[in-house]
Design goal:
single chain, 646 residues, alpha/beta, Rossmann fold, 3 domains, 5-stranded parallel beta sheet
């Protein structure tokens, strides 16, 4: 065992030394923890790395990527020696921090501390819900654990505390955290930054706590993991390790993020009696994992397939529903399922979304989500009651006032295969930027539903009135931002978000009523922009999104009274529009006439389409919504006057 652990340690060191970049401390200190977890506990197989009922492992301490890559290599995943030699290099599948979709065996993109544990909470919620929904007497098709390795830095992050609080409240017993507790962080000893009593804090959040005094004591670690797995609440195992164990800087922050170098690594090899050279691998380590980890995983997968076959025979209808869900298929006829909305419908788009979510949830079992203590206002609520410790069947998650964790937990639900959404006020997306960015980076279709999308919020004032938020997310690569103008566009927006496979969607909705003054087919909506009102003799175009489309139409009426003919274009999504061929873009926004863009938010993004923008580049005000809208000049008269001044 010691030889195998050292083989993993030194393979990690070789990667870091060759790259001249990386984090050796966690590789040396935590290698025994992950070696034991995979050898004696993890239920997974490289033969089918995406097998649904596998255990999930999330490296929340993502800076330890060299450790997990070395372990995945020895465990039999498609991570070859040449991949390890290309660690942290351009185009390699062993990037500096683990990235979902790049490396076989990596379950989540981690690195920003605290995100991984929150993702894992989402995975554990998905497992608990699906087990309740689909397992039958003697036929368990959902029965797996989610394991996490997190460190001192993870534990200090607010997102970790938020997510752990919710996990304990929900008694997610299939979640086990291995806490690499070495009492050191980048700037020095953890005692310089915190004096928390880890055990008291964890137990106060309703977690089962275990303590292992030495990371190299695999027998004690084994017993602690077994006890944690038997608990009816999430398990937290504090494992005391030495950062940079065996090096001259062991136990200090100098071991954290700087390569030790080939000379010191060679000295460590000699001191440990490890006679193998850089990137020289040991057959016995491969064989050890093959006879334990892989053998156990292959057998479990074979048993699961037999159970699945018996399940199909016993209940073919539910079996089909289960397979559709785990394969990520969406086969709905949205035109038939979603509520029909017609021209003349006047309602807040948040209400339109709430109605659509409820109806869609009745037809799509994979749809799950909730809001951060705001569902009564956002209307973003899941079906079948609340998901609780006694009602795993519920698909509404009461996230509480935990926006940061909500975003990351929802990502975890999506990573597990659910069609998951979360809801809040657009202004509070500020709390969620990190997790939303990671959903885009991971290319996963998380659905972010935000309401109160402009200064029309009113009396709550500038603290609650979004200005720059839309611009920030429109600038985020691989994220579709949709701001629907009315009930018809809202219906299409939800369909688009649910059908998305590789891109998260942000849907920004109104608190105030808007009226649907024109119909639009889904195919036209998908282009990101369409002509709401055309005119053969148009002198220009009013371009708008969201509630301002109705304003633009009113301004067009005003201009027509004054003998000025204009077109009106609704642009619910800049990203979708910019993805269209040039000829489509030019047909919708001709380049040979003037364009005025109108939106009650930061003006910056609209300059991609025109040099003339009516936006808001200051913070909002407190007062009645309609008064604030007028204060900032968003009236038909002002828009018409601004257009004529161009």
């Amino acid at each position: 065992m010691k030889k195998s652990i050292d083989a993993i340690r030194f393979l990690g060191m070789d990667m870091i030394n060759k790259a001249n970049s990386g984090h050796p401390g966690i590789v040396l200190g935590a290698a025994p923890i992950l070696y034991h977890l995979f050898r004696d506990h993890m239920k997974a197989t490289p033969e089918d790395p995406d097998w649904f009922d596998r255990d999930r492992f999330v490296l929340s301490a993502g800076h330890g990527s060299a450790l997990i890559y070395a372990l995945l290599h020895y465990a039999g995943y498609d991570v070859g020696i040449e991949d390890l030699k290309a660690f942290r290099q351009l185009g390699s599948k062993t990037p500096g921090h683990p990235e979902y979709g790049y490396t076989e065996g990596i379950e989540a993109t981690t690195g920003p501390l605290g995100q991984g544990i929150a993702n894992a909470v989402g995975m554990a919620i998905a497992e608990a819900h699906l087990a309740e929904r689909f397992n039958k007497d003697g036929l368990k098709v959902v029965d797996h654990f989610t394991y996490v390795l997190m460190g001192d830095g993870d534990f200090q992050e607010g997102v970790a505390q938020e997510s752990m609080s919710l996990a304990g409240h929900l008694r997610l017993g299939k979640l086990v955290v291995l806490f690499d507790s070495n009492d050191v962080q980048l700037d020095g000893p953890t005692e310089d930054a915190t004096s928390d009593d880890i055990r008291m804090k964890v137990e106060s959040m309703n977690w089962h706590y275990e303590h292992v005094a030495d990371a190299n004591d695999l027998e004690a670690l084994h017993k602690a993991i077994e006890r944690a797995k038997q608990a009816d609440k999430p398990g937290f195992i504090e494992v005391k390790s030495v950062i940079g164990e065996g090096s001259t800087v062991a136990g200090t922050s100098a071991a954290h993020g700087k390569p030790l170098g080939e000379e010191e690594t060679a000295s460590m090899r000699q001191a440990k009696g490890f006679t193998y050279g850089p990137f020289e691998t040991l057959d016995e380590v491969y064989e050890g994992f093959a006879s334990t980890f892989k053998k156990r995983g292959d057998a479990a997968r074979a048993d699961w397939q037999e159970t699945l076959a018996a399940y199909k025979e016993a209940d073919p209808e539910t079996h089909e529903e289960f397979m559709t869900l785990i394969e990520g298929k969406v086969t709905l006829d949205f035109d038939e399922v979603l509520p029909q909305k017609s021209v003349g419908t006047a309602e807040a788009t948040r209400n339109s979304m709430g109605e659509c979510l409820e109806v869609l949830g009745n037809h799509l079992p994979a749809l799950i989500g909730g809001s951060a203590d705001l569902s009564g206002s956002t209307k973003a609520k899941g079906n079948d009651g609340d998901f609780t410790k006694t009602n795993r069947f519920g698909r509404n998650i009461n996230f509480g006032v935990r926006e940061h964790a909500m975003g990351a937990i929802t990502n975890g639900l999506v990573l597990h295969g659910m069609k998951a959404f979360c809801g809040g006020f657009l202004i509070f997306s500020d709390y969620m930027k990190a997790s939303m960015r990671l959903s885009a980076l991971s290319s996963i279709p998380t659905i972010h539903i935000f309401t109160h999308d402009s200064v029309a919020v009113g009396e709550d004032g500038p603290t609650h009135e979004p200005i720059e938020q839309l611009a920030a997310f429109r600038a985020t690569p691989n994220m579709n931002v949709i701001r629907p103008a009315n009930a018809i566009e809202t219906r299409h927006a939800l369909r688009f978000a649910v059908e998305s496979e590789k891109t998260p969607t942000l849907i920004a909705l109104t608190r105030q009523k808007t009226t649907a003054l024109a119909d639009v087919a889904y195919a036209d909506f998908r282009r990101g922009a369409y002509v709401v009102r055309d005119h053969d003799q148009a002198e220009g175009t009013l371009l708008a999104s969201g509630s301002e489309v109705e304003l633009a139409l009113a301004a067009a009426d005003r201009l027509e009274e004054e003998g000025v003919n204009v077109r009106v274009v609704s642009m619910p999504s800049m990203e979708l529009f910019l993805d269209q061929p040039d000829e489509v873009q030019k047909a919708i926004l001709p380049k040979d006439h003037k364009i005025l863009a109108v939106e009650m938010a930061a003006s910056l993004p609209w300059y991609r389409f025109t040099g003339h923008v009516m936006g808001i580049d200051s913070f909002g005000e407190s007062g009645k919504g309609e008064e604030i809208v007028r204060h900032f000049g968003f009236t038909p008269e002002t828009v018409a006057r601004r257009f004529k001044s161009i």
